[in-house]
Amino acid sequence: MQRIVVKIGTSILTDEDGKLSTKYLAHIVEEIAGLHKQGAGEFIIVTSGAIGAGMQRLGLKERPQTIILKQTAAAVGQNILIEIYEGLFKKYEQTIAQILLTHQDMSCRKSYINISNTISKLFEYKVIPIINENDTVAVDELKFGDNDTLAALVSQLVEADLLLILSNVDGLYSSAGELISIVEEITPEIIKISAGTTSKFSTGGMQTKIEAAKIATQSGTTVIISNGKTKGIITEILQAYLTGGKKCGTTFVAKENKLNSRKRWIMYHLKESGELIIDEGAKEAILNRGKSLLPSGILDVKGKFDEGDAVIIKDTQNRKLAKGLIGYSQNDLLKIKGKQTNEIEQILGYEYGEEVIHRDNLVLLESASNGYPQA
Ligand code: GLU
Fold first, then answer.
1. Which ligand 1 atom is nearest residue 148's CA?
2. How far is the CA of 231 from the centre of ligand 1 (A)?
3. Total structural domains in the chain?
4. Considering the entire predicted model, what is its pTM?
């Protein structure tokens, strides 16, 4: 059974004036309900539109810029949005569930597992979860920021086979104006041609979609960007995906996933609180010899973090090498950096372990390896 995340952007949910409209959503819901009933897959919807719906109800002409106004609009609008989904799915006797997430929920391992368990149970009951960011409680630095990223992280969480990003464009266009049908590798050129485009009513342009595609493909999910205004698009995409037929939109090919669930969580769901600069010996040991990071290789410590936080490891040329969960606080590390492991206890008065970052808690970044994160 295919697991499919469908991201529905603001452009599908609103008309030209930014007013909430079910013109396209009604078709999408009909399609998803039908495919779900036929057993074509387990569906999750990641929807935007809460702020848009709130704007309309509050009489705001432009998308709010301040966080408090965004939160206010989302609080009013989320309710309206989910009512629309409820009404549309009810016609097909399809039960839905509302899940509102913040980045913070996903970066706590316990709640991350809870969310995943809840979604599995909802699938068991044949319910379609409708997910949005919990804009009302998320503060800026803890936000996903846009629903493209949220959809990619949800795909990663549920180990989705397919992520469909539906917006008002047919896919990614080359600089010569041609639709790119397949992207095997998200190269800097691809990122460059996606730059630009945001609208008055929505959050991300093509660039956030490509960045989301990068996260999702690296986690083993195929990503397709397509036009949600085209009738029958989901069925068409699914058929092409399953049969290898003519592709619609732009397909981003999934990477073979090399990371286990815990490392994927470290890599994609934790925000880093600091940086460690390491010497060439330590760099060689973690990149090429599968070793843990020891205090002796650490040259410098930046940021403010406690034991258990995520940090980025860099070389002396400021290249990002790895991300990991740190075993010591930044205060401790400032004292033990450059020292041998057998000196830790003497310096600090205690020892949590020989490693500053144990190999099990360390993920090599794509910039340091051959194209995607590695254990
Ligand atoms: N969470 C926002 C909303 O529902 C949308 C963010 C986005 O569109 O990327 O309004």
1. 9
2. 23
3. 2
4. 0.83
